[in-house]
Amino acid sequence: MKASLTSFTLGLALLVAGITSAAAANRPDPNDPDWPCVQIKVPELALGQVWNGPAIDPATSGWSDDKDVASLVVYLMQRRVPLDEADAKIGAFAGAAGAARTDKLGKLFAGLFQKMNTERKDVMTGIDRFARKQKDFAAKLKSMDANLNTLRNDPKTPFETLQAKNDEVQWNLRVFDERQKSLTYVCEVPVNIEQRLFHLGKTIVTAMK
Predict the structure, then answer these.
(1) C-alpha 209: how far from its chain's center?
(2) What burial letters (b/e) apply to 68-78, b meaning 16+ CB within 10 Å?
(3) Using CA atoms, how far apart are residues 12 and 142, in angstroms rounded to an integer?
(4) What pTM was estimated for this model as a whole?
(5) pLDDT digits (tens), the chain, 209 positions
(6) Per-residue DSSP letters for 68-97?
(7) Less packed terminus of the chain by CB within 10 Å, N or C?
(8) How many CB atoms lie within 10 A of CB 190?
(9) DSSP per residue over 134-188, as a string?
């Protein structure tokens, strides 16, 4: 039993250390040591990154006052809506706008930029919060591992106590590991939002012509 516990605690220490080292190696931003994603942390998008159409100011465009525009913005920003379907909606909207097409489409992108940029910022705030929790969780695991090792080396420790502590550490390690694996998906979400916004912007510019 002691041999298996020795092997387990060593594995725990190596896993936590490995995850910590991997996170450090993947961080591109030395100014934010807690950022866990490979992608560079850009908290907010600039309009020029995703738009090459006529000049617009999302803050003053008044897009939310146009019910048709506001409704389409909410629809298009949903990532579950396929891009080809979104493109078709933009084309139909442009066709129905007539002489007001350029103005309407400009407002449409202004709304998309404002809403999707906010959504992206909210996701990144959530990633920051997740990373801090994982950092605290890793510290907790190291402390639990040290305590288990102390109990294992004490001949007076009852077998039942040792087994219970071992099970507790294993459970927490599994939870930690599953959460860490989920980062691969979570870190892609801001990128997916940015790519979708860029695609929609290109479609809108094309529909303006």
Answers:
(1) 35
(2) ebbebbeebbe
(3) 8
(4) 0.77
(5) 444 444 444 445 545 554 444 444 444 456 677 788 988 888 899 999 999 999 999 999 999 999 999 999 999 999 999 999 999 999 999 999 999 999 999 999 999 999 999 999 999 999 999 988 888 888 888 988 888 888 888 888 888 888 888 888 889 888 888 888 888 889 999 999 999 999 999 999 999 98
(6) HHHHHHHHHT-TTS-HHHHHHHHHHHHHHH
(7) C
(8) 23
(9) HHHHHHHHHHHHHHHHHHHT-TTS-HHHHHHHHHHHHHHHHHHHHHHHHHHHHTT
CA distance linking residue 63 with residue 102, whole number of Å: 13
123: closest CA among 192, 38, 33, 47?
A: 192
Q: For residue 201, which of 45, 47, 51 has the smallest C-alpha distance?
A: 51
36 neighbors 131 (Cβ within 8 angstroms): yes
Helix, strand and coil percent figures for the chain, each rounded to 5: 75, 0, 25
185 vs 40, 133, 192, CA distance in Å?
Answer: 15, 17, 10
